[in-house]
Write a structure and sequence with these properties.
By secondary structure, the protein is mainly alpha-helical. The chain has a 3-stranded antiparallel β-sheet with strand order 2-1-3. It folds into 2 domains: 61-192, no CATH class; 210-427, MetI-like (MetI-like fold), CATH 1.10.3720. It has 17 helices and 3 strands. The two termini are 54 Å apart. It is elongated and about 115 Å long. Helix 2 (16-58) crosses helix 17. The chain has helices at 3-6, 16-58, 88-97, 108-115, 122-132, 149-155, 172-183, 194-197, 210-241, 246-258, 263-277, 285-310, 313-321, 326-354, 358-362, 383-391, 397-427; strands at 66-72, 140-146, 187-188.
Length: 431
């Protein structure tokens, strides 16, 4: 039998069968690309729907209806050395009546209706402005007084003034007073800086996110200070020094499992250990940060170990070859090269912790706090729990503020993830 007889027949790449096979493969490639593009399209579409819905319902919270009221405090009975004891309620009410023509002819009922146009905290707003700037006592000045929530909703078109009076929260008399003030040009809708500079309040027109933002900052600071060094140290030990035996295998398996444990479990752990055993204060950012650090530790450990593995072994070998000890090779060479990836994973872990609600609810960070915390031991809320509180409120004004708070939270998450991407692109080395 000849050698030529044993060789396979040459393939005819231009045959009809091969052309059909190539056509089928190319079609499969195009279908796979189309499926991927359709999946991306659906993901972006749902994201656009989410952001669009939140924006449509929350953009009105970024403006606040106010009345620019002129008050002359030079003739008021106010002791400059004892501002807190002045009759601010009577002073402000007299000033508000002065903005309305024919106010002297109003009945007591109509006066009450008129005063209800403005937030009930108007006297305290004026008082605080005077305390910050005592020069206001010397003459006339303009004070921006927020309108009450029903009138704010009326000005923003959320209340239909054509409905019968019994079916809306504002009376016909109040609508008449509002129109008269609007005709005078003292009604405006500036940007609502109070959404960021005010703490929480029972009144929607005064409620803000300052306390929640401060609480989230302190909690994330505690979380970072605990999870970052502990996570890196644990990862270095497990990756470089720990003996490979059954115990370390169990530890590694549990670390991987902890990364997938629901956050409510960590909240229950914090409730039992930090509040129950250690007796730490409830609602404190210290406890919140410690609970969040338990959540982020597995992520940081896993990311750090992966980053250390990605550094070429030649770096360690070169350091050891010139006389460096093992820990010097790790701390002075491997760890600095892996740090960009570690920082990226840490920021992503902190971003995830920022949006967690369940563990913070279990440790009490959903209390009604009317001032921002001055430290990690003071009672506070956080952005997710503040959203939860507002979403549970029956006041209509909190509907828009809930959506606005979600947009603020999403903004912080986008900034943190953007920072992670920039750090990775700026410092990452490719081998």
């Amino acid at each position: 039998m000849s050698v030529a007889a044993t060789l396979p027949e040459p393939v005819n790449w231009q045959s009809d069968a091969m052309k059909a096979r190539r056509k089928a493969r190319y079609a499969a490639d195009r279908r796979l690309q189309a499926y991927g593009m359709i999946a991306i399209f659906f993901a972006l579409g749902f994201l656009a729907i989410l952001v669009g819905t939140l924006t449509a319902s929350g953009y009105k919270a970024f403006v606040q209806t106010k009345a620019s009221v002129q008050l002359d405090l030079s003739g008021a009975d106010i002791d400059a050395d004892n501002l807190m004891d002045a009759n601010w309620r009577g002073i402000v009410r007299n000033g508000l009546l002065g903005q309305l023509d024919g106010a002297a002819e109003l009945s007591r009922q109509d006066q009450r209706e008129y005063f209800n146009l403005f937030t009930s905290s108007a006297p305290y707003i004026v008082r605080d402005m005077v305390i910050r700037n005592p020069a206001l006592l010397e003459g006339e000045a303009v004070y921006d007084i927020p309108l009450s929530d029903p009138l704010d909703q009326l000005a923003k078109g959320e209340i239909d003034r054509d409905l019968p009076e019994s079916r809306r929260r504002v009376s016909d008399v109040q609508i008449g007073f509002y129109d008269r003030l609007d005709e005078r040009g003292i009604i405006s809708q500036p940007f609502n800086w109070g959404l960021f500079t005010n703490a929480d309040s029972r009144f929607p027109e005064l409620a803000g996110l300052k306390g929640a933002i401060s609480g989230s900052f302190w909690a994330l600071l505690v979380c970072f200070l605990i999870s970052f060094p502990v996570g890196i140290a644990a990862a270095i030990y497990l990756e470089e020094f720990a003996p490979k035996n059954r115990l370390t295998d169990v530890i590694e398996i549990n670390i991987n499992n902890l990364a997938a444990v629901p956050s409510v479990v960590f909240g229950l752990l914090g409730l039992a250990v930090f509040l129950g055993w250690f007796g730490l204060p409830r609602s404190a950012p210290l406890v919140g940060g410690m609970v969040l650090s338990l959540m982020t530790l597995p992520t940081i450990i896993i990311v750090t170990r992966a980053a250390l593995k990605s550094v070429p072994s030649a770096i360690r070998e070169a350091a050891l070859g010139i006389g460096a000890s093992k820990h010097e090779a790790i701390l002075h060479h491997n760890l600095p090269l892996a740090m960009p990836t570690i920082l990226t994973g840490t920021i992503i872990g902190l971003a995830q912790a920022l949006g967690e609600t369940a563990p913070l609810l279990l440790i009490g960070m959903n209390a009604f706090i009317t001032s921002d915390p001055g430290g990690v031991m003071e009672a506070s809320t956080a952005l997710p729990t503040q959203i939860y509180i507002w979403a549970d409120s029956p006041e209509r004004g909190f509907v828009a503020r809930t959506s606005a708070a979600i947009l603020v939270l999403l903004g912080f998450l986008v900034l943190m993830n953007t920072a992670a991407i920039l750090l990775r692109n700026r410092f990452e080395r490719r081998w």
